[in-house]
Amino acid sequence: MRFLPQVWRVNDKDKVQLSPSDQSKFYTGDCYIFQYTYPGDDKEECLIGTWFGKKSIEEDRLIAVSLASKMVESAKFQAIQARFYEGKEPIQFFVIINQCGSDVVVVLLNLLLECISQTRLQSSGVVLPFQQTINDLVVNDLIIVMLL
């Protein structure tokens, strides 16, 4: 079973649900609320998150937090709440949001290539800088990942 998130944009003092095709499009001047339900150990669990664009206004941020808190309180199953800020999202955020139809593997590879330093180990034992494009990935390449 595939669990898809639901996403709302904060509009005035309410939330407006986005269509599935727009759920992975977040704009820097807006705030969003999302709900992701997933299988837990015994029953379904839920993550209710808020995302704040860098240019979003404080009033919208407060409304987003308030609406998300109400969603957590009224959840039918165990729910946790999280806040995400544009430019500081963990990779898990992109995995959840991009299930709306984007190719998650390509998104993750792009993020990985942007966030880390890579090297390629040739059969001769020489370590070369790894070109930062997906097209350079070869199945037989061994990628040594160095976290910065």
UniProtKB/TrEMBL annotation:
Which SUPFAM superfamilies is this protein grouped with?
Answer: Actin depolymerizing proteins (SSF55753)
Looking up Gene3D superfamilies in the UniProt record yields: Severin (3.40.20.10)
**Any idea which GO molecular function terms this record carries?**
actin filament binding
Instruction: Cite the PANTHER family for this sequence.
Output: VILLIN (PTHR11977), VILLIN-4 (PTHR11977:SF138)
Entry superkingdom: Eukaryota
Q: What is this protein called?
A: Villin-4
What InterPro entries does the annotation carry?
A: ADF-H/Gelsolin-like_dom_sf (IPR029006), Gelsolin-like_dom (IPR007123), Villin/Gelsolin (IPR007122)
Span of domain Gelsolin-like: 15-90
Pfam families (alphabetical) = Gelsolin
SMART domains xref list:
GEL
Q: What is the lineage of its organism?
A: Eukaryota, Viridiplantae, Streptophyta, Embryophyta, Tracheophyta
